[in-house]
Give the backbone structure.
Amino acid sequence: MNLPLILLALPLISAAVILLVTRKQQSISALIGTASTAAMFVASLLFLAAKDGETTLLHWATVPGLDLTLGATVDQLSRGMMFVVTTIGLLVHIFSLAYMKDDAAKSRYFGNLSLFMFSMTGIVLADNFAMMFIFWELVGVSSYLLIGHWYTKNSAADAAKKAFCTNRVGDFGFMAGILLVWGLTGSITFSGIEAALPAVSTAYPALITAAVLCVFAGAAGKSAQAPLHVWLPDAMEGPTPVSALIHAATMVAAGVYMLVRVFFLVEASATAAEAISWIGGITALLAALMATQQDDIKKILAYSTLSQLGYMVMAVGLLAGEAAMFHLFTHAFFKALLFLGSGAIIYACHHEQNIWKMGGLWKKLPITAITFLIGTAALVAFPGTSGFWSKELILEAAYEKNNILFWIAVGTAFLTAFYMTRAFVVTFFGKARSENADHAKEVPMIMWLPLAILAVPAVIAGYKIFYGPASALHPTGHEFHLGPVFFASIGTLILGVGLGFALYAGRNTDRLSIPLFKRRFFLDEIYQGIIAVFHDGLATISDLLDELLVDGLISKGGGGLASGIGNTLRRLQSGNLQGYAFLFGAGVIALIYFTVFSV
């Protein structure tokens, strides 16, 4: 049984059927998409037991020096990631059955979800850069469609375009990196590149560094690392289940997954690895600072995602790829839980997203509140939860290799505990601050059931028993020791949670006002200014060239010359017989003159 082919075919067939055949049958489309993802989940369970190896799915083209194929890598990394994608995907589809039940474009929504599942599966299974880049771009397209699902709303349409354009910047670097790697090693398959790398890295260290940094640019775009992070918070304009699927567990994790897949490249350049670690650390800190001043519950979680992705990227740069993937695995579950939980809150509060217009929801939404608390505990790394174990590995890697990055990571952990306590206290405690919150009631079972299911791995995904012997996202043989890392972690947790309660318990307004954080360090305004200057400058130059060359010389100059000649010739056609006779006589005289006197 060719499981990789089945995993790719199921969502592709689902997307084609929904978008081409059942688009007008909204409920049928939703069921087809959900059933397809359920079948993928079953296939991914079987995939966990598949033997390691590489499988060629399709020969695409062969040219001298390059063999383009669609192939699948079956190993512990792809098996574990496939389990994450299908598990979160299935629960998101189930949640969406209720959340999107009244949406007029439900078929398009589920069709685009299937397209995304197909694209993400291709990235996970790819055994070469060409295949990965194709599906990488398909993920970009499908995320654009999902973010802009409500495209009649200007903010959603703008967010979709922003995500698409920002990712194109990173993808340009990714493409350049792929070409550099191919030129240096003569291969685009990961196994071929790894085999050729030792000799090449010794002969061309500077080019290898350039290649790794270019490849990382692609990861920075997809995983929203500074300075290409600005698209992710705006992407919250899409439906909340989309945020849970592509902006918490899968699409944004694709960059980290790709870096771990080509970890041998990162190891080949110490300079590139150090740059990657610093970008990850800075992103983690900046995003956490911005999260402390956000009022939209989804944007708080979006900046939290940015911060946690920064942790993962920093771990990759510190050459702790195992820790990065472990945190990716645990983060997928508890962040999907939090995003779907926020969706349940928004649904119950009649699509209100401002936490300061909520309050008192603990008694009104008991199941949602308890599961959200579990997700929050995992995110702030409460001891015993999955997030605690994976974050500890990253902190240990930073402690051993870079003291400055260690303290940046510790500061980020403090901020995470603070802003998540703020969000939880303001949302669930106190009195209802709006009519929507006052009339809120628990969501239907089809919505809270995925939350209850996700709450389990949010707690136990840090324990090896959760994985079994077939998966290897858990760091094997890791022993946890008390020491500076443990005390720093516990200390920041206590301080962050305590400060959050002290400042926000029983409060109806924010006691902190830091415009720099609230306005996201004014990075969006800076980008808009830069784009405006260059865009308007190019537009002005183009307008001048158009006026001078096109309108002036070509249109007006050429047109004027043609018009002048036409006017001159037109005067010769007066319709006067005497004039024609005169011209005829003049022509005869001229002919005689040139015939006789030119000899």
The beta strands are 53-63, 66-74. The radius of gyration is 31 Å. The chain is about 75% helix and 5% strand.
